[in-house]
Amino acid sequence: xxxxxxxxxxxxxxxxxxxxxxxxxxxxxxxxxxxxxxxxxxxxxxxxxxxxxxxxxxxxxxxxxxxxxxxxxxxxxxxxxxxxxxxxxxxxxxxxxxxxxxxxxxxxxxxxxxxxxxxxxxxxxxxxxxxxxxxxxxxxxxxxxxxxxxxxxxxxxxxxxxxxxxxxxxxxxxxxxxxxxxxxxxxxxxxxxxxxxxx
Length: 199
Hints:
Elements: H1 3-20, H2 36-44, H3 47-63, H4 67-87, H5 95-111, H6 118-138, H7 146-168, H8 174-198
Helix pairs in contact: 1-8, 2-7, 3-4, 3-5, 3-7, 3-8, 4-6, 4-7, 5-6, 5-8
C-alpha cells in the first residue's frame, strides 16, 4: 500500500475511533431546548447517525452519477417520513437494530465495492432512513415545533451526506479509491460496536 494511502487511513482512524466512545452523548439536545437548533444538532451528536450518513454519501460518490445525488436525496426524504411515524407514536420494530445495521451494511457496501442496480441501492438506503427518521421523531422535544425540528435534522443529515461525498471524491485516484473503501470498512466496524449495543 502506498505511503499516501497509509497516511489517509491513519487520519481516518483518528477521526472515526472517538465515535465509539460517544454513546453517552448520542442524541442529547436537552440543553438546546427545542426548534431548529435541537433538530440540527440531534443527528450530529449521535455517532451512529453520523457514520451511517457519511456512508450514504461515500457510497453515492463511489457509485457515481446518478447514485451520487439520488441516494443523498432519497435518504432525507424517507427519513422525514420515518420522523412523522415517530412523532405520531406509530411503532417501528427494531429501530436501534436497524440504525446499527445501517452503518454495518452501508459501510460494507463501500468497503467491498458493491455496485447494485440503482433501485436496489435506493431501496436499501430508504429502508434504513425509516429507522433513523423514527428515532429522531420519537426524541422530538415536547416544546418543539415538529416541522422546524425536522427541518433541522434533515439539513444536518444532508450536510453529513455532503461530507461523505466530499471524501468519496477521492475515488478518482488509485490511492484515493483505497482510502474510500477503507473508510467504508472503518464505518462498518464502528457499526458492529453499535450493533452489539443494540442486541
